[in-house]
Amino acid sequence: MLYVLSGTNRPGSRTRQVAEVVAEHLKKYKSDIEIIDLAKLPYSELTGQHYSGQGLHTEFTKAIEKVNDSEGLVIVTPEYNGSMPGALKYFIDHWSYPRSFEFRPVAFVGLGFRWGGLRPVEHLQQVFNYRNAFAYPERVFITNIGDALKDGKIVDKNVTDLLDKQANGFVRFITALKSQNLFPVSK
Hints:
Helix content is 40%, strand content 18%. By secondary structure, the protein is α/β, with parallel strands linked by helices. The protein has one domain: Rossmann fold (3-Layer(aba) Sandwich), CATH 3.40.50.360. Strands 1, 2, 3, 4, 5 and 6 form a six-stranded parallel β-sheet that branches. The chain has a two-stranded antiparallel ribbon with strand order 7-8. Helix 4 (118-130) links the parallel strand 4 and strand 5 (134-135).
């Protein structure tokens, strides 16, 4: 199963809408796609003691297990204050190493205004490279998101083409990694 991670807990976000578009592109090349939506996780129930992974709310545990069992992740992130949303980083900080990261294929889609989420994608790449994930090199940056996304659809053909190219390439990337037994650790 491939997962598209909607990287903010802001209700009704454009990020969720873009995650749905990304999932539709992926479905052209692989049938089992699901979205992990951070807006559906109960962040208010987390305290610092949850960093150990013990006592996590079951919705967080389920979301982390999806990450752990995934064939790959596409992380869709908006830019908040020059980086990724705190909720995304906080979610990632609860993952387990090496299981959640090591050899995990991951792709990135940034969205924003002038720079299209460039900074949060670069920050995420640092995290995932540090943790030995396989970062797919073709990133997509959606600039001027207010103009590019209308009624839940990407209206910029260039962006649509880039998302489709990324989806196709990412599925092929995962297939290539599997063919060489380079795949996430299971435990």
